[in-house]
Amino acid sequence: MDLLLSVFLGLVLLVGMGWVGLQVEPKGFPPHPEETRDLGKVELPSGLPAPVRRYFEAALGEEIPRIESAVLWGRGRLKIKGLWFPVRFKAYYLPGRSFSRRMEITWFGLPILKGVDYHIDGRGGLKITGLIKLEETGEKIDQAQNLVLWGEAIWTPSVYLTDPRVRWEAVDEVTTRLVVPFGKGEDQLTVRSEPRTGWIREMSAERYRGQEEAKTPWRAECLDWKPFHGVTVPTRVVGHWADEKGPYVIMTVEGLEYNVDVSEVLPAEEALPS
């Protein structure tokens, strides 16, 4: 009986330590060493659907800062097999072309898994190393990550106006359809805005999840808007799959720099991250 009790108490202690370790937030990445550069302005074009015009006027005003690259970093939580893990991330963007995000999943603040997800020159991928090793590529990942590329352009919004491959289509007073390039064709996100503030409330799409056969409805909530260098962006983004209870990821932005050198991570559209 004493042995069984000792084993039971030991298991409880291990489980408790494991749970406590998942509550410890990692230190955030340090601020990016290079500061934002001003590359001029983009005029707000005429003919935009009403919700889109309200969004740009609220977030940027009549003149939109031109953004040709960006580095963003922050922390958050990621749900894996029903458990929430702390995570820190740093992402690099060439808006409308490429992105690469470095992620660290931590326990007691220490990295136990490292990963990178990306979309470069039309190809998407996810690579995880550490206690678990995983690598996913292929046409379904390309589609999923292309939607991430264009959804996360909300942090570099001038590309929604300057890229000639993008168009906005009116749906109703608070909803628009964002049509974006995908390979030789197109894909789309549904964008819903707040009627009072003009902020984008959420973006949604039909998106592949891993290598599943069918697409799954997916949406990203855009919350807690804050200005960075004259550009007001959401600092908390919450991701949902329609067939799962509750969100699967919460990302909180802690820093953002525009028009900085990202060539070390995104040296060319043909180069995939190692």
Report on the architecture of this protein:
This protein has 274 residues and is of the alpha+beta class. It has one domain (2-258): Clam (outer membrane lipoprotein receptor (LolB), chain A). 18% of the residues lie in helices and 45% in strands. The protein contains 4 helices and 15 strands. The strands form 2 sheets. The chain has a 13-stranded antiparallel β-sheet with strand order 8-7-6-5-4-3-15-14-13-12-11-10-9. The longest helix has 22 residues, at 2-23. The protein starts with a helix and ends in a 16-residue tail after the last strand. Residues 3-14 and 269-274 have low confidence and may be disordered.
Q: What are the salient characteristics of this protein?
A:
274 residues; alpha+beta; outer membrane lipoprotein receptor (LolB), chain A; 13-stranded antiparallel sheet; two-stranded antiparallel sheet; 4 helices; 15 strands; disordered N terminus
CATH class annotation: Mainly Beta
Question: Tally the helices: what do you get?
Answer: 4
SSE order, one letter for each helix or strand? HEHEEEEEEEHHEEEEEEE
CATH superfamily caption: Lipoprotein localisation LolA/LolB/LppX
Shape: globular
CATH architecture: Clam
What percent of residues adopt helix (DSSP H or I)?
A: 10-25%
Q: Report Rg.
A: 20 Å
Number of domains: 1
